[in-house]
Amino acid sequence: MAAIADVRVSIPSLPDEPRHPKRFAFPKRSFGKKKPVFCSAKSQWFDTWPFLHYDEGQDVMFCHTCVTAYQLGRIESSKNTATAFVTTGFCNWKDATVTFSNHLQSKSHIEAVEAIITLPKQTKDVGVQLSSAHKAEKEEARDMLRMILSSVPFLARQVLALRGDGSDVSSNLTPLL
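Request: output the structure for the sequence above.
Response:
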């Protein structure tokens, strides 16, 4: 069987948030040939597995996190990527709960969660970090300037020179700071 990287697949276009229909009559599918069992998707699954995204038109579910990570190129396509949750959509409602739990613990889903959810929360934009450092430096410089400016009127009232004879040792301003 070919890996996902070897096959051209169409990745579904998903909205920014996963679709969780609550009051929807999910269509039933037949499973098994001798004794067919009719099963459908359940709205309770969205509470347990919030990463699921339901496509009403195809009656399939996708992993919203994995599809987003794959579209953004944050995870590599490989044998580990669950094609049912990323490209074709999952619709085996009979074994859904077991498959969802397995997908939640799969390597590809864990990588997608790290790339899309965990890392952006832990890391800041470089521009934001530089801006924060620059802001802290400006605040420190303002505090120093306020201290200098508050010392000048004191020395003026005492009729003392700011600099003394030109060296920092004899300066009247330096000891005040």
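Residues 126-157 form the longest helix (32 residues).
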